């Protein structure tokens, strides 16, 4: 039996000319639909998870540590003033491959306003950071106010006599403290004097409210001018760091640059860390979560693929007479087996051709679909509670993906290499589950079948 003959028989199994109702054909069609439906959530989960992880990673790297971060000793003369600290940081740009440096002072403090208070990380940065740092410029959006006042005040901070300075705060922190541009927040730090620790309170005027799209970061950061930190805050517990930007965060040269920075004159006063060392816990958590989600979705595809095996079994039972006749006129067991394997693999291919585009389409419209589902669920919940007599004002809304833990907008990243792997794996699974019933079909004995007919 030639391959062409096997293909022709497989074609007759998939597209029979007879109009007679066939349970096996319905099972085959059902298996094809199940595979297609199982691929849709797998593609959506993979695309959304990749987009979320990429979005969070970009924000954590670009806005928090940059590609490399230098932790500078706090007892050296180079960090005793804003100008000397900037000059010290600029020396790192002498190393080939370093694009930009951003000196920063970090202070853990309390932020208070309107009888509310919360923990905050004070980040004292140069006035130009929101325009010169492309991560800050691209990833931060101004929700209220303007960054112009921040830049002007930071340039004149050393000459100002008032304690009222300009601060830029995250949107979530603005909601917690209930403040807006023009309002005043109080920063409470600690200072040491004669072995005694006492609080120091400094007032800042909110000039802008910004959002990174990631509330975990927006609830923490307060940006102030670098000069203002030296003039008006207690630096006894401050950390001096320098964010160092390179051409590529994922470059293999990052390790070399980390080592070479230590050899610079100012390198002996600092410890240098790569972004993947500073945030290793977060990224391991992201990766393990993604792997677990994909594993669960692949199990769904595996279960759907098992339907192909059941459909092939029913197809073999329904076509036993045809198998017997073909064998009687010279068809080989391998040829019959190949025909049924082609049928099972074609079912998997059909599922992929339907499920993959549908999954990609659903992924690209993930935000709209999520918003629709939220409205639908909250509408049903509201009706249910109103029927029970609960006041509408007391009904809380359900967030399917709470922005407190995720990004406010779901970024979608289509990993084409992984999507190709999904398609190939699905077709391979369909082929594997078809092997046993196909081999049994090839071993059918025509004499026994014709006797029973």
Structural overview:
The protein is of the alpha+beta class. It has helices spanning 3-14, 23-65, 82-90, 129-132, 134-139, 148-155, 171-177, 215-218, 226-232, 253-261, 275-278, 280-318, 320-328, 333-364, 366-387, 416-442, 446-452; strands at 68-72, 100-113, 116-125, 141-145, 165-170, 184-193, 196-211, 221-225, 239-245, 270-274. A 6-stranded mixed beta barrel has the order 2-3-8-5-7-6, surrounded by 4 helices. Strand 6 and strand 7 (196-211) form a beta hairpin. Helix 12 crosses helix 14. The longest helix has 43 residues, at 23-65. It is elongated and about 105 Å long. The chain starts with a helix and ends with a helix.
Question: What attributes characterize this protein structure?
Answer:
453 residues; alpha+beta; 6-stranded mixed barrel; 10 strands
Short overview:
With 453 residues, this protein is α+β, with helices and mostly antiparallel strands.
């Amino acid at each position: 039996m030639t391959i062409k003959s096997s293909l022709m028989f497989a074609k007759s199994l998939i597209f029979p000319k007879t109009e007679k109702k066939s349970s096996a054909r319905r099972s085959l069609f059902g298996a094809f639909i199940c595979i297609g439906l199982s691929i849709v959530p797998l593609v959506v989960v993979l695309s959304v998870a990749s987009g979320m992880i990429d979005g969070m990673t970009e924000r954590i790297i670009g806005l928090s540590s940059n590609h490399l971060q230098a932790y500078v000793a706090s007892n050296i003369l180079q960090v005793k003033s804003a100008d000397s600290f900037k000059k010290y940081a600029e020396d790192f740009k002498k190393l080939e491959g370093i694009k930009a440096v951003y000196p920063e002072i970090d202070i853990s403090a309390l932020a208070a306003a309107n009888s509310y208070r919360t923990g905050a990380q004070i980040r004292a940065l140069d006035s130009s950071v929101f325009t010169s740092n492309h991560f800050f410029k691209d990833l931060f959006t101004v929700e209220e106010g303007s960054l112009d006042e921040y830049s002007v005040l930071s340039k004149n901070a050393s000459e100002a006599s008032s304690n009222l300075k300009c601060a830029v705060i995250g949107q979530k922190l603005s909601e917690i403290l209930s403040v807006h541009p023009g309002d005043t927040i109080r920063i409470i730090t600690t200072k040491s004097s004669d072995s005694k620790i006492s609080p120091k309170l400094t007032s800042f005027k909110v000039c802008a409210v910004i959002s990174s799209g990631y509330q975990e970061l927006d609830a923490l950061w307060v940006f102030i001018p670098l000069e203002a930190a030296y003039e008006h805050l207690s630096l006894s517990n401050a950390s001096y760091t320098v964010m160092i930007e390179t051409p590529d965060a994922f470059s293999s040269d990052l390790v070399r640059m980390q080592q070479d920075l230590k050899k610079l004159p100012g390198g002996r006063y600092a410890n240098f860390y790569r972004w993947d060392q500073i945030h290793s816990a977060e990224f391991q958590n992201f990766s393990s979560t993604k792997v677990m989600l994909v594993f669960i979705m692949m199990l769904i595809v595996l279960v759907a693929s098992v339907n192909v095996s059941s459909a092939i079994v029913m197809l073999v039972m329904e076509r036993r007479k045809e198998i017997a006749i073909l064998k009687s006129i010279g068809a080989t067991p391998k040829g019959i087996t190949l025909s049924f394997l082609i049928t099972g693999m074609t079912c998997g291919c059909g599922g992929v051709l339907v499920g993959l585009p549908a999954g990609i389409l659903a992924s690209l419209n993930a935000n709209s679909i999520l918003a629709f589902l939220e409205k639908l669920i909250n509408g049903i919940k509201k009706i249910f509670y109103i029927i029970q007599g609960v006041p509408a004002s007391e009904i809380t809304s359900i967030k399917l993906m709470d922005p407190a833990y995720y990004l406010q907008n779901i970024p979608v990243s289509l990993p084409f290499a992984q999507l190709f792997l999904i398609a190939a794996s699905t077709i391979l699974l369909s082929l594997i589950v078809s092997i046993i019933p196909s081999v049994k079909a090839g071993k059918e004995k025509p004499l026994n079948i014709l006797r029973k007919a």
